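Lecture 7, part B: from sequences to assemblies.

Below are the input chains for today's worked example.
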Amino acid sequence: MEHERKNDTVTARITGELDHCSAQTIRRELDMMITEPGVRNLVLDLKDMTFMDSSGIGVILGRYRQLRDRGGSVAVKNMNPQVERVFTLSGMRQVIKTM
Amino acid sequence: MEIINQMELRFLSLPENEAFARVAVSAFAVQLNPTLDVLADIKTAVSEAVTNAIVHGYENETGMIAITSALLDDGMLEVSVSDTGKGIDDIARAMQPFFTTQPEKERSGMGFSVMQTFMDHVTVESAPGRGTTVRMKKRLQEK
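Predicted structure of the full complex, as structure tokens:
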């Protein structure tokens, strides 16, 4: 997964599909990024993510909880309409910032 | 209503089959020329039902999942997703938003809510120890 870091913020680009099958790998990769010393915020760039179901919601909320406990945040950007519907339905807009 | 086409799939409850299942059902539905948004809804709902069968129905075991899809002459798609796994004790509770029996695995508890939102009709039949069948309907064409 491509990612870049600026100061205390990591931006990660998730590509392809985020479902139960891919969730474990994506979760592990994101956790490696956000547990680097000094990282407090995560931005998920979903421009190249073609599909997400509620397993993706679990992945995003799990990272949110970790970073919130360290005073940080999670934001998402460039959702396609299908991903945005799942995101909105799950009430994620109340806790995850969209850019 | 008359069935104008029907298909059945049977596959092992492996996570690798989630994408196969949702793509197969949406490809079958293409015959009635639904919009891309409708196809995305079907893919999402089927993915949720199949994932439920894998992670809850069979949990730590592997079993067979069966999908039957039918196109009806009134423009509707019917999809049923069945497993013969452990079943659901309390269906009403399982269908509540954010309810999950596996919070430690970061399950969102939104599977049934997604199915109900993305499809026009969802029913669940289940018996503990015998398995679960989720039946869903979606309008593909206006009447």
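Note for the exam: The beta strands of chain A are 2-6, 9-13, 16-18, 41-45, 49-52, 73-77, 97-98. Keep this in mind when comparing with the next example.
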